[in-house]
Design brief:
single chain, about 250 residues, alpha/beta, Rossmann fold, seven-stranded parallel beta sheet, about 45% helix, globular, binds nicotinamide-adenine-dinucleotide
Length: about 250
């Protein structure tokens, strides 16, 4: 208990899935977590369920102006920001033959541009006290699939952007460390809905499970525990690194 005691944490896409699970663990370890999401109904419901140390702010992570407002709001309410978790993303399915240019660009805007905007907006405030930025990539950054051309490319951009921002922070000696998280297939509402939309949901879930050498999918807490480590001072010497927790998928 208390591994992130008193830390002010901003976490995008916290309404459900891995973001919700991470918020729950962070709060259990003593943090105050501001979750944001463009799904207002689900975000408010989740924040309510997470209790008095959770707050909710509506945010489309692709909107630069909203990032400015959110950081100003956090500074006004709490005076500082210790941790930024860039978790929100979309998965765009399809091969080079199937995916439209619009959908390819949408994947990059939500998954990559949002992290650029988040880091750029938060760093002036975070630099005052030091802290930790956690960028969600995926095992799909390393292990490609014919039907994930946009997501593979977008998620692969994140570890490299993370390295560059980490080097900038190290050069500035601002005390901010920046790392990437690469989950394997984890059963979240998003993954379940993809399966439900297929002709044979059980077969697709089985396929996801077998893609990992360990033969099964992970649980949201498998990633939440990593987020707690990266948010805590236990990870104070880690920066620019990519942490794969993926049942061996990216080996
Ligand atoms: N679940 C997995 O198997 C898996 C595997 C590898 C990586 N990841 C990554 O982990 C992160 C979380 O995944 P998840 O499965 O929990 O996803 P999810 O779809 O269940 O949750 C994502 C959340 O982000 C929100 N969101 C989407 N677009 C947004 C936008 N423009 N602005 C604000 N919020 C927005 C959604 O409303 C949702 O609450 C993502 O970055 C994902 O790419 C997930």
């Amino acid at each position: 208990m208390g591994r992130v005691e008193g830390k002010i944490i901003l976490l995008t896409g916290g309404a459900m899935g891995l973001g919700e699970a991470a918020a729950k663990r962070l709060i259990a370890e003593g943090a105050r977590v501001i979750i944001t999401d463009h799904n207002v109904e689900a975000g408010q419901k989740t924040a309510l369920a997470l209790g008095e140390n959770a707050e909710f702010l509506e945010q489309d992570v692709t909107a630069p102006g909203r990032w400015t407002e959110i950081i100003a709001e956090v500074e006004q309410r709490h005076g500082r920001l210790d941790v930024l978790v860039n978790n929100a993303a979309v998965t765009v399915y399809g091969s080079i033959a199937d995916v439209s240019y619009e959908d390819f660009k949408r994947c990059f805007t939500v998954d990559v541009d949002s992290i650029f905007l988040g880091c750029k907006s938060a760093l002036p405030l975070m630099s005052k006290t030091g802290g930790s930025i956690i960028n969600f990539s995926s095992a799909a950054a390393i292990s490609a699939t014919a039907d994930l051309v946009a997501y593979n490319a977008a998620k692969a951009a994140i570890p490299m952007m993370t390295k560059s921002i980490a080097l900038h922070c190290a050069r500035e000696k601002n005390g901010v460390r920046v790392n990437a998280v690469l989950p394997g297939a984890i059963l979240t509402p998003n993954v379940q809905s993809v399966a439900d939309a297929s002709s044979d949901p059980d077969a697709l879930l089985q396929q996801f499970a077998l893609a990992q050498p360990v033969g099964h999918m992970g649980e949201p807490d498998d990633i939440a525990h990593l987020v707690v480590y990266l948010a805590s001072d236990e990870s104070k010497f880690a920066t620019g690194a990519s942490f794969a927790v993926d049942g061996g998928l990216s080996i």
